[in-house]
Design a protein that fits this description.
- The protein is 58% helix and 11% strand.
- By secondary structure, it is α/β, with parallel strands linked by helices.
- Helix 11 links the parallel strand 9 and strand 10.
- The protein has five domains: 33 residues; 125 residues, Rossmann fold; 150 residues, Alpha-Beta Plaits (2-Layer Sandwich); 106 residues; 101 residues, Arc Repressor Mutant, subunit A.
- The strands form two sheets. The protein has a five-stranded parallel sheet with strand order 2-1-3-4-5, sandwiched between helices. A five-stranded mixed sheet has the order 7-8-6-9-10, with helices on both faces.
- The longest helix has 43 residues.
- This is Response regulator.
Length: 570
């Protein structure tokens, strides 16, 4: 029989490899088995870990089938849940086959904690006849299926693996499709975001971004809303955190419930929403509809435990005006520092007295310098209160307020240096003030922060004192209660300070966020327990204030650079 094979085909390459190997080395190999082995090597295998403390059962699971024939590769074995959890944090797995009853961390905890961090990983539970209740719990936690250890059957295992593989591949296909769509949307929104912020981009990208908006929104007129989003129940968040689930749901609500809107997330706290009115002719009706939409943002956010304030621009007939509309919306939203509540801020309501800015600025700087020269804290406090009251009543525009506040705060390190004082707060005032401006914190809280710095300079008796009294009290409270569930809200109640003000003050004094400081103290306590006791890892986490073992392990590795197990071994 004459067999014709295309020279560039996979089969041709396998046959050439086969003939060369047999000719040179004289091996008697099967062409079919060689092609099969090379095919296995080329295709991507799903990665599997077996977690079982009994070596006999581990061997039974490994040897019952040729895993590669079904698209799986057994890459790792673990003898308990904690070891498996550490492996999971270090490399990728598609499937974990785990026993239920194991030392250090059982299978249920492994499933639960892994699913919290890596929900895409699939689990199959290994079950004994006497722990079926635990198997049901494993299924509730997200396990795909279970296998009876004492009655492993080839056919049953293959069927289970095929079902799991089908789910994994479908998940991958969905993810690839979502990533592709998200990538296209990201590229479009990236250019649009730069346009909104007034940054320079190539003309063809600008035109494409504007075209995408018009396709979605239709005809003018257009209005821009700038939303400032915070959690109703204050919790300090890390700087690198992405939008919370509530914020994502909020953005989804905007897109799905409002046909002629285009939301763009600028940060965790700021979202731009471009709105069009293709069916409206009356300017007054456009303004009314825009206010109604802004009001719906506030109500929708409340249902998700979010607080939203909205700055609203004027109307424009040209989509290319979105940068100037954004600037208008931002200037209006900035008025929130004077009127700290959930509401809509529009151009019709607030017009800053910019013409008065130069005179006010010079007057304030002179008055404050004279107050500082008096070295009398009561005089300084009276003058500072007067200055901030004037800022509040004048409702200066954003650029003028920022300039004035930075100039006022810049006096503090100069005065401290003249008095030969080494104060922690003088090293961080710039960052704290920037944060306050970015977060639109009330002018009264900025005033309190400024006064606290003044009290340190003019009220401090012992220059060797590291921290001001209230921050030292906060540190002492953390040291005494680190093994409890401490929150910023708890600390603020103990110290009788607002959460925002306490957070600013703490960061100013220590250079750290409160959550960061708490976690560092807890990890040091955990390291001591790991060195000096035989407590299990989850027990160490519980004794040092971590409610979840997975979070404890994650924070430990972030702060020490190694896993809990590696630290204990060292």
């Amino acid at each position: 029989m004459l067999l014709t094979i295309e020279s560039n085909s996979i089969l041709a390459r396998d046959m050439v490899y086969f003939m060369r190997a047999n000719w040179v080395k004289g091996r008697k190999q099967s062409l079919n088995s060689l092609i099969l082995r090379n095919w296995r090597r080329r295709r991507v295998m799903l990665q599997v870990m077996i977690v079982e403390d009994n070596a006999i059962y581990r061997y039974a699971v490994k040897s019952i089938i040729q895993w590669e024939d079904y698209g799986f590769e057994l890459t790792t074995e673990a003898i308990n849940g904690m070891q498996a959890f550490n492996y999971i944090q270090e490399r990728h797995y598609d499937l974990v086959i785990t026993d239920i009853s194991m030392p250090e961390m059982n299978g249920l905890d492994l499933i639960q904690q892994t699913k919290q961090l890596y929900p895409e990983i699939k689990f199959i539970a290994l079950s004994s006849f006497d722990d079926f209740q635990f198997v049901k719990e494993a299924m509730k936690l997200g396990a795909e299926d279970y296998l009876l250890k004492h009655d492993l059957e080839t056919e049953g295992l293959i069927n289970t693996l095929e079902q799991v593989k089908s789910k994994i591949l479908k998940d991958r296909e969905k993810l690839a499709k979502a990533n592709s769509q998200a990538s296209d949307l990201y590229l479009s929104n990236f250019s649009l975001r730069k346009l909104v912020l007034g940054e320079s981009i190539p003309a063809h990208k600008a035109n494409q971004a504007l075209s995408n908006i018009q396709d979605k929104l239709g005809r003018p007129p257009y209005i821009v809303h700038l939303l400032h989003i915070t959690a109703i129940k204050y919790e300090e968040v890390e700087a690198d955190s992405m939008l919370s689930k509530a914020r994502i749901l909020f953005l989804d609500d905007i897109s799905s419930e409002n046909e002629f809107t285009y939301p763009i997330a600028l940060s965790d706290q700021k979202v731009v929403v471009i709105q069009s009115f293709p069916n409206e002719k009356s300017e007054s009706r456009v303004a009314q509809a825009a206010h109604e939409l802004a009001g719906s943002f506030i109500l929708s956010a409340k249902r998700l435990q979010l607080s939203v304030s909205v700055g609203m621009s004027q109307m424009s007939m040209n989509i290319s005006d979105i940068s100037s509309l954004y600037q208008q919306a931002g200037a209006n939203l900035f008025q929130k520092i004077y009127d700290d509540q959930e509401r809509i801020f529009s151009s019709q309501e607030y017009r800053g007295n910019s013409s008065e800015e130069t005179g006010i600025h010079q007057s304030f700087m002179v008055q404050l310098s004279l107050a500082f020269k008096s070295e009398d804290m009561s005089v300084i406090e009276e003058e500072v209160t007067h200055i901030f009251d004037m800022i509040n009543s004048s409702r200066l525009e954003m650029k003028h307020v920022k300039r004035l506040l930075f100039d006022i705060f810049a006096l503090l390190p100069v005065i401290a240096a003249e008095r030969k004082m080494m104060l922690n707060s003088m090293n961080h005032w710039h960052d704290v003030l920037l944060d306050s401006m970015e977060n639109l914190e009330p002018i009264r809280e900025i005033r309190e922060y400024f006064l606290s710095c003044c009290r340190q300079i003019f009220g401090q008796k012992d220059v060797r004192q590291s921290y001001r009294k209230d921050i030292q009290m906060a540190r002492d409270y953390i040291h005494a209660h680190y093994n409890e569930d401490i929150s910023v809200a708890d600390l603020s109640i103990v110290l009788n300070l607002s959460p925002n003000y306490l957070s600013k003050l703490f960061r100013s004094e220590t250079g750290k966020r409160i959550v960061e400081y708490i976690n560092q103290y807890r990890i040091e306590a955990a390291k001591k327990l790991l060195r000096e006791t035989n407590l299990k890892v989850y027990e160490v986490g519980e004794k040092t204030g971590f409610q979840e073992t997975s979070y404890f392990c994650k924070v430990f590795k972030e702060m020490t650079g190694i896993t809990v197990s590696e630290y204990r071994k060292s």
